[in-house]
């Protein structure tokens, strides 16, 4: 299976470092953004990115702004995994209604993130049959 390009969107440098190392070790190509504005710009410029790992609380534009923009402009083109240290039941339900694939609470295990990315890949593979 071809490893997709992943965009990691978080304002925490330690999260970027830990998850990037794990994802690259698993064979994924990782792009980075530290806020919502950077995420949207990156995704508009590079349509090869199919999976987005998205923090909810960030400066400039938050994760739900990014999620709403992606769904409006790209439909379900991107698989989206939410990671947050501020998860609530309401936030999780809103994410589910907007087609988020997974909702992980920080501190997040790199293994859990990789499992969520693999689940998106498996679902995409089934869609293409």
From TrEMBL:
Official protein name in the record: Response regulator receiver protein
PTM sites of type 4-aspartylphosphate: 55
GO MF assignments: phosphorelay response regulator activity; transcription cis-regulatory region binding
One cellular component (GO) term of this entry: protein-DNA complex
Cell division in keyword set: no
The organism of origin for this protein: Alkalilimnicola ehrlichii (strain ATCC BAA-1101 / DSM 17681 / MLHE-1)
Record-annotated Response regulatory domain positions: 5-121
Key word Manganese present: no
Pfam families cross-referenced by the UniProt entry: Response_reg
Any single biological process term in GO: regulation of DNA-templated transcription
Membrane-spanning ranges: none
PANTHER family found in the cross-reference section: REGULATOR OF RPOS, TWO-COMPONENT RESPONSE REGULATOR ORR33
The entry's keywords: DNA-binding, Phosphoprotein, Transcription, Transcription regulation, Two-component regulatory system
